[in-house]
């Protein structure tokens, strides 16, 4: 018998509107396969906006190009109003209701706080995702597992909700848990609830927020579900502009720096740790059997250019009320466009990110093809 094909995991990190870049990457990869070819990935792991992308294409694991085309169709028709309330009445009414809720007595249940009302996103996800397809893909053997990571505000732990084959076990590690669950819109909303921007989502008896907050080991869900290779499509922002160090950082600069740190730093540390373990296995092959370690091959793909110049260019496309709210709390693209790049769900900006992801992937086609096709997919 031939050697069993290695399982490849697709790991999609968070980044709000920046996740359109991942669509461009997947579009380029899908063109290397026939129209009815199954996905080269059997494991999908997503956090924040990456969780939404991962779920969408995992539903079509048996036909990779179809899944990517549907994902591109959704993103190319996005507007801010499909993600959060943007009308004057909708935004002001939501903020006033938040304010009144906090004036009530403590024994009344208060809604989770968020500057933006993401109810339109809930409606959109319910419309475009057929979650029952996930179980069908698992039963057919096209999908080994999918994991959606969120952060528990109750325990302070990173919780990966997964759905997959019966041989995947739940896990408990330091500040990290894996729990078997049927993936729903609630899991996606929880994982993508950027702190202060979007309200937390209740799952069971606890509230959950953006999965990047407490995620100390982003590679763990892929490893726990049996991945042999991991393709990571990251959304690390390339800082190409030289900042003015003589100016005190304002709210925009601080917020952008904090969000960039949340979404990127732990992944870098986890990749370094994986590299050390692989080097140890290479230098001491005997340890592989004794400690039951296995070598994992990662491929890390990140944007070649900064998101910020695009965010500045298309800032004017944001709805007037959204721009007004941002300016009211001191956020302006003149200071720092990092925060804007997360919430700019407008067609022109999204198309630019999809194009960037497509072009970056084409430039690394030879390396990526070797990584994927060498695996027999």
TrEMBL record:
A motif (GXSXG) lies at residues 46-50. This is PNPLA domain-containing protein. One of its GO terms (molecular function) is hydrolase activity. Keywords: Hydrolase, Lipid degradation, Lipid metabolism. Residues 10-225 form the PNPLA domain. The active site is at residues 48, 210. The keyword Lipid metabolism applies. SUPFAM superfamilies: FabD/lysophospholipase-like (SSF52151). Pfam families: Patatin. The lineage of its organism: Bacteria, Pseudomonadati, Pseudomonadota, Gammaproteobacteria, Vibrionales. One of its GO terms (biological process) is lipid catabolic process. PANTHER family: BLR7027 PROTEIN, NEUROPATHY TARGET ESTERASE/SWISS CHEESE D.MELANOGASTER.
